[in-house]
């Protein structure tokens, strides 16, 4: 479990995070939902330690991460896997070498054979067993995301962070990537945090959803509760998609399914 | 300016704390030696051979006094190339080639979040990416400068004989007159200092790139500009201090 307590961050007087307190639960896909520019990426970078929050603390399974000793921070970092928005594969290395890289750097005690087994396992897990020899520039965006996931889980991470895993992907590929993240999370009991503004992901994999708005946490809950949430900003966000609106209408008329919503005002905001 | 210099010093310090394992550092340095050293041999060879040739021809053109022996031309080619042209011109050429590739490479890694990816893995990205580049440059520049010295003297020899400015015998006699071995040591010290300046300044510029592809291009350009200025200032200071 990751606990974020009163995290604040400003850039040159522009306060981006205004005191966020939330928890990310173990073995679940925790979604950070919010519009563009609400500070999702900044919060994620504060959590993984790429940025230092001005105030507040972050705790990983009881161990404080913020401002702790370098050694303890290193220990925690070794357990963190991250999928970046642009995949951030090392473009001078092949797909295989990319996945092998964290193993080489973080677990020097592993033999070459052990590493090979692990890399092959991870590539197979994301469905890319034959792409090992390719360079990152030779594969598609969806494949890059898969390699990114394989690289993140290769050293047996306990925490997985994904910054917009399906930005720039077609709906079908998006769903496949979402499913992959969801499966991996439940299979290995990882604490996963996914930054997204995609409602498809929400209904697909939202075990626990945290809604950010202008640097504040306005709502949290799960995917079954979100359609009935009574926060105006969240409603506006959800029902800005006409697809969701239409789906909800059908849902209401047939009185069943995922969200047996009864409030009409949700549609009429 | 002062702020930038302070940041530069902090950057160098961050690179030296929390280093990677020695085996990794060594492997990375060898990789960079290939990029910085081997891939620069061709351009350095061409430039230095021509510099030697041109120096020889122009000195011969200026030296019209019949009282001065022709072998002086060889002597002057040697002095000029070993002491100044080989280390400085080679370093300026390398500032263009190596400096821009370091700044561009690191800048691209920064804006595509590859640097962040290293940091998240708990790797000190400055020491993993930059230290090997600086070490490789400091190993390779002196070797390239030695090559440049040899080739510019050979270039002078060929130019002198082919244009008939002086005979091969006179040239070689000139080359062997009043040789001071310390000049070579001095030139190599210069090249190591220049190597550090070029690689560290370019890394600094590239590593802290912010923005997009345009900024990466700008970082490369500033890296080369600043490296060349630093080389010339250092050249003057070293000459004033060590000669
Ligand atoms: N390094 C930085 N320096 C200054 N301002 C920054 C920096 N990083 C982010 N910001 C500001 O913080 C705000 C939030 O940015 P952030 O990237 O977290 O948005 P986001 O929620 O991830 O949006 P998106 O969905 O578009 O990625 C923006 O207004 C941005 O200008
Ligand atoms: Mg973002």
From TrEMBL, chain A:
Domain of life, per lineage: Bacteria
A Pfam short name = ABC_tran
Q: Which GO terms describe its molecular function?
A: ATP binding; ATP hydrolysis activity
Q: Which SUPFAM superfamilies match?
A: P-loop containing nucleoside triphosphate hydrolases
SMART domains with a match to the protein in the record: AAA
The ABC transporter domain sits at 2-239
Coiled-coil ranges per UniProt: none
Q: Which UniProt keywords apply?
A: ATP-binding, Nucleotide-binding, Transport
Q: What is this protein called?
A: ATP-binding cassette domain-containing protein
Query: What does UniProt list as this organism's lineage?
Result: Bacteria, Pseudomonadati, Bacteroidota, Cytophagia, Cytophagales
From TrEMBL, chain B:
List, in alphabetical order, the Gene Ontology terms for molecular function in this entry: phospholipid transporter activity
Quick check: keyword Cytoplasm in the entry? Answer: no
InterPro entries, alphabetized? Permease_MalE (IPR030802)
**Which sequence ranges are marked TM in the entry?**
34-61, 134-159, 180-204, 224-242
Please provide one cellular component term from the Gene Ontology annotations of this protein.
ATP-binding cassette (ABC) transporter complex
Q: Which UniProt keywords apply?
A: Membrane, Transmembrane, Transmembrane helix
Tell me what this protein is called. Answer: ABC transporter permease
Q: What taxonomic ancestry is recorded?
A: Bacteria, Pseudomonadati, Bacteroidota, Cytophagia, Cytophagales
